[in-house]
Amino acid sequence: MIKLKKAIILASSMFLSLTSYAQAKDVTIYGVSSESGAFANFGKQGSKGLKLAVDAADDAAGMKFNYSIIDSESNAGKAARKVKAAISKSDARYFIGSTLSSTALAVGKEVDKAGGIYINGSGADEITGTQCNKAMFRWSAPTYGAVNASLIPVLDLHPEIKRVYTITPDYVFGEAMLNNAKIILKKRGIELVGNSYHSLKEKEFSGYLSQAMATKADLLLVLNFGSLATNTLLQADSFGMKDKMQILLVWSSGLDHFRTLTPKVAEGIYFGSQYWHEDESPANKAFVALSREKLKETPNYPMAHYYQMTKLLIDSMNATKSADPDAIRKHLEGLEYDGLTGREFINAENHQVEKYFYLLQGKKASEMKDPDNYANIISKAKYFLPANETGCKM
Amino acid sequence: MQNTTPFKTYAMGLIAFVILLPLLIHSQVLATEILIFAMAAIGCNLLLGYSGLLSFGQSLFFGGGAYAASILSINFDVSLLTVIGFTLIVGIALAVLVGFFSIRRQGIYFVMITLAFGQLGYYAAFLAEDFTGGEDGLLDVPRVALKLPFLPDVHFDTDISFYILTSVLFVLSVMLMQLVVNSPFGSVLQAIRQNENRAEAIGYRVKLYKIAIFAFSGAITALSGALYALMLNFAPLSNIDIEISETILFMCVLGGLGSIFGSIVGAAVFLLASDFLSELWPRWMLILGFLVILVMLYARGGLWASLMIMLERAKEILGIKEKHNV
């Protein structure tokens, strides 16, 4: 009888330990993505990248990777509530992405409290600055890097530029972009002849463009993004501004912008970009091939950055052979790896991924080698503030 | 809709509801959000359902409450009661301000004035970055403890403890609002909604009544905004955006105008549907839009009225005698 009891207890404990082992090997990665709302298109593309990375990972290092998409509804409050619910209900610990900086900041706080890992690609300087925390990592260049990596090479290429006019969205992001641009222009002794602020709901830019032409600027520096930038460039093209001055859009959406603008408009215009699918780095070539094979499409920036962030997390789990957030964090801090933009490095002091930022120039339609060969890479560079100047205190 | 259900039955029903809700949906966080938005929808219903005042200024009260509670909690070592008291004062002050100007006009002009106040609030919050955090919102909003003399502090750091706090405030608010709408004051409001000129002709000071109901609406909406910020530990700018007014109005209409319980049903259905549907299909708003069209066309009293009709019919079929009108 005693033997039977012992056997039952042994069998039960073996079953329980096997069950818990199996559960420990199931890792769910939560993608925070604006699937609905104002930025739904960005979110939709981003989740494709995340899914691609998870599907490609198989069950590496004995772990089976799953994903779950949290629709942020393009609303920071909603995102924070859903992430909070996922943490308390499903013990979620691994989070990727966001569209809005306010979402990233709020989600970062929640994940930090839960002791998880959150890799995002939002732009606000605070993410790896004053609001940084142990859980949060960022894969994308903030405004400082974007402005430096795009404006400096344009000024080098065109020493005739002496007068610059800026168009700036009137909110935190725009202000940060403008401040960074002012510092560079001042250093170079170039005059900022005027700036037009506009609201985030602006559609009509002809008034601002007329002012830019009236100042006889040599460079129109466009500091807005997304559909605002598209409208600005379309209207600048119809004003014939490309013949009168150089145009630089610092924060473009990469391939999506070129597709919307068409080569006729984009030709000759400079574009700053976080990602470009024609980069020759081995990791990027593999990613583009994977995307074309699995999704039958050339990857754009949202896809690429969600893919890279997810891959970074999965690779870290494989390297540490663990899903322990602390082990992953330690592995990520100071890591140098082959990323989509070339060799990328994670600054241990503020968790900023130091990656390349591109300067592209739109091609003529007749020069395009394939339907997505919209631009030449003029340069790629890394510009990041030293961590001790970002205000980050872990 | 005048309700004659005994007060105790109401209280028992509400208590049963708040106990069962998190058990049924398996999420204390979502259950908390449902109670919070139910309170906001009740605030909207007081204006639209009971008084015929379509206000798009609800986001101002909601966001105002969220910012008031957040600023106080972040910057001062205060008790929860102080935060709630301050939030109610801010909500009432904002509502009286909006009411004072908007009730001077009727119809579309009234709506436009409330909308303009809502937008003013949004841009004021956007520009007052030092106080509101601007676009990034206010982060690290602490859930302040309830400090009572001679008693140990009560903390609300866990999801369940915060749900209990929200439940208590929810039950108290709903009971208070039910008392208000069933009081002679509530009857006058309904008289104003049905025929404002007649109500004025028989001697009621219509403007005062309207301002008073604005104050009640502002108070409960601000309280819900404060609880939302404390729940999230975060007060985003979107709390004061026009979209919040639209969402609250959507819940209010979906559940049924002129019914406190309708607002609760509207908030619950909206949030549960959006939570469930957003996991299934990114364009889930299409389904919710379609649902509202169906409700408008075929269930004009809202989901709550339809539920009540179905219950009545079920009772008739089962031969149960009706004791109370609901």
Question: Brief overview, please?
Answer:
The complex is a heterodimer of chains A (394) and B (326). By secondary structure, chain A is an alpha/beta fold.
Structural key phrases:
heterodimer; A: Rossmann fold; Rossmann fold; 2 domains; seven-stranded mixed β-sheet; five-stranded parallel β-sheet; globular; B: mainly alpha; two-stranded antiparallel sheet; 2 strands; 75% helix
Largest sheet of chain B: 2 strands, antiparallel
Order of helical and strand elements of chain B = HHHHHHEHHHHEHHHH
Helix content of chain B: over 70%
Query: What oligomeric state is this?
Result: heterodimer
Secondary-structure content class of chain B = mainly alpha
Number of strands of chain B: 2
- The H/E string of chain A reads HEHEHEHEEHEHEHEHEHEHHHEEEEE
Percent strand of chain B equals: under 5%
For the largest interface in this structure, which chains are involved and how many residues does each contribute?
Answer: A-B, 31 and 33 residues
Order of adjacent strands in the largest pleated sheet of chain B? 1-2
Given the C-alpha coordinates, what overall shape of chain A results?
globular
- The share of residues in extended strands of chain A comes to 15-25%
What does this structure look like?
The complex is a heterodimer of chains A (394) and B (326). Chain A has 394 residues and is of the alpha/beta class. Chain A contains 12 helices and 15 strands. Chain B has a two-stranded antiparallel ribbon with strand order 1-2. Chain B has 326 residues and is an all-alpha fold. The radius of gyration of chain B is 20 Å and the shape is globular. The model of chain B has no long low-confidence stretch (mean pLDDT 91). The interface between A and B is medium-sized, with 31 and 33 residues.
